[in-house]
Amino acid sequence: MRTKQTLLVLFLTVFSFVSLMASGQKDEENMSDELVQISWHQIGNPQELLPEVMVEVNKYLAEKIGAELDITVHGWGDYTTKMQTMHAAGEPFDLAFTAPWANPFVPTASKGAYYPLDDLLKEYGKDILAKLPADYWKASTIDGKINAIINLQIMSNQRGVAVLKTYADKYNFDPAKMTSNQELFDFFEKIKKNEPDVIPYFSNKEGIYPDLTDEKSKYWDAILGENAEYIGVRMNDKSRTVINTIITDEYKQNIKSVRDMLDTGYIPSDFATLNLDEEVKGKDYAAFVMTRIKPGVEGENRVRYGKDTIVFGFHKPYVSTDSVQSTMTAIGINSKHPEKAMELYNLVYSDPYLYNLLVFGIEGVHYTLGADGYVTQNSEKAYGLPAWQFGNQFNAYLMPGQDVDVWDQTIALDKAAELSPILGFVFDPTPVRNEIAACSAIFEEYKSTVFYADDLDKMLDEFNTTLVNSGVDKIIAETQKQIDAWAK
């Protein structure tokens, strides 16, 4: 009898334990089912350690907003093709990176691929609206609707030169006291005469112009992008007149400046074919081009090239539609959870812990954070995604070489920058798509050869005539028509 009682008690105990285990598993399954699944497509180098980071991310998101995030990172060369295929197939996704240069924003948004965000921002993106200057939203607006969230980072653009501090000190060259570019050329001449193993200046064909002009305010907003700078609107032109930049005095002066440097040996004769990073790292230059100046760039140069530099700009910093659009995130038109996607992005935008977890990984595993706020990455557990893809870069921990107040400096620079008179204008290339393709190919062909022409005036006339014959005037007329309609 006692044996039967003992067995009965044992049976009931085991049954209760199994029931509790099953109940617990069911609760976990129900909790997982209740979490809203959000997908996010990004560009970059695929990260082997991303899954272990996402475990921590999703623990945090489950507690904060009841969501679970799945990030897919597509390679730099694959991203646009992959996303365009998804758009064409109507494949649902929640969040995706978009910019003029990847998963191209304007043509994609114009086809209705993205979810209108105006109402979602008001309801679920209040922190985003509070942090981003109102003028910037014009750049992501298509047909009167906001189509992408603008990532908050440096918005202004300024090109210029980095001078190695060693040579600047040795030859008493102070860029802050420059009154004309002739003083820079005088510095190059001293380098050439006194430093036979040093090359005075390096630039590639993408960054050589329109930097070298004494008219610092007469820079243009290149409406079609930096690789098609044959039309534009001057930054100081409130009439918003579209011009053919190739026939301007500024453009001709820029070309002459480069030709003079070639003739005097200040730059390598084959500069147009060389790579900036490879040259600066591997050879001894006294100065080199900076295609985008920003606070902390001297520290970045120190880390990147192992050299102390003094950096200065040749024109005023400006904000254009293209510079604002350079990093954005959109919600797919077929997203099953657009509200939760916006809520998640709003959290990334406003929560430094979540932001840095996504960017740098798990503290103590993928990096250590010093008392001074600087990150030291763990080379044995390498992880890192582009910081500018995650909403608000001003949430980021500091990297070696950056100033302690780098984000305050960046915000101040953006506020002081000149706003393009067509900031927010988004050009629809459809009516002149063929002409743009032809003229852009011509621009790519001539923009280097003009530096080596025996007769510059003749070459510039040929350059312009070829553009005209290929439809540049039609492009200008269509652009002007759209700007005038937009400005009303």
What's the structural domain tally? Answer: 2
Low-confidence spans: 6-12, 25-31, 207-211, 213-217
| Total beta-strand segments | 17
Number of helices: 18
Largest sheet: 5 strands, mixed
The spatial strand order of the largest sheet comes to 2-1-3-14-6
Return Rg in Å: 27 Å
Secondary-structure-based class equals alpha+beta
Indicate the CATH architecture of the largest domain: 3-Layer(aba) Sandwich
Helix content: 40-55%
What is the level 1 CATH name of the largest domain? Alpha Beta
Distance between the termini: 97 Å
Describe this structure in words.
The chain has 488 residues and is α+β, with helices and mostly antiparallel strands. The chain has 2 domains: 35-155 and 320-427, Periplasmic binding protein-like II (D-Maltodextrin-Binding Protein, domain 2); 160-316, 3-Layer(aba) Sandwich (D-Maltodextrin-Binding Protein, domain 2). The protein is 44% helix and 13% strand. The strands form 6 sheets. Strands 2-1-3-14-6 form a 5-stranded mixed β-sheet. Strands 11-7-12 form a 3-stranded antiparallel β-sheet. The protein starts with a helix and ends with a helix. Mean pLDDT is 88; it is low at 6-12, 25-31, 207-211 and 213-217.
Task: Provide a compact summary of the structure.
The protein is an alpha+beta fold and 488 residues long. It contains 18 helices and 17 strands. It folds into two domains: 35-155 and 320-427, 3-Layer(aba) Sandwich (D-Maltodextrin-Binding Protein, domain 2), CATH 3.40.190.10; 160-316, 3-Layer(aba) Sandwich (D-Maltodextrin-Binding Protein, domain 2), CATH 3.40.190.10.
